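Students often ask what a 'structure token' actually looks like in practice. Rather than answer in the abstract, let us consider 3-dehydroquinate dehydratase, a protein of 176 residues. Its sequence is given first.
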Amino acid sequence: MTTKRTSRAVAKSVPSLHPHVLVLHGPNLNLLGSREPGHYGLATLDDINRVLVSRGEAVNAQVETFQNNHEGALIDRIHQAAHDQVDFIVINPAGYTHTSIALRDALAATAIPFVEVHLSNIYAREPFRHHSYFSDLAVGVVSGLGAHGYELALEYALRHLPNRTSHGSQKTEKAH
Ligand code: CA2
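Now compare that with the structural description of the same chain:
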């Protein structure tokens, strides 16, 4: 039996020339801007996402955002990212930072490089927030810089992603 591949399926397997970054937000971050501004600031999640997407547009990068309150949905989105050939992930795992081996395993399995972001400084808070299941796998961690932390993580991703040529090969930029 032969399998007919649709042009859409073929298109999906061809890496885009434009960097593709996925920004993932964990549970309760949909409440940003409405409660606990002392810890998490006044910006809403929409405010944060708008800035990130428009920064992507300015440099011809695809920036997608996704928030969910359920561990499985976040894991499924990471699997989808591998399928979509996402180049880099910026993730605030929120409460799952301190509990989720399953989410850690999903990131490890897909091997997409990621930066871990926290709005608050998790080391200046309760001891149970000092441990992260993600930090040792992350390229880096930004914690305590509020919404600006997401922008810094995105800038890092855009600057350090390998430049793809139209021939499909990759030119790796020198780290500075
Ligand atoms: O500082 C961060 O970004 C955290 O990842 C936020 C998590 C917390 O469990 C981590 O320890 C640190 C909590 C996100 C809850 O977000 C809310 C936003 C507005 C109002 C209430 C909660």
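One point worth highlighting: The longest helix spans residues 45-58. Ask yourself how you might have guessed this from the sequence alone, and why that guess would often be unreliable.
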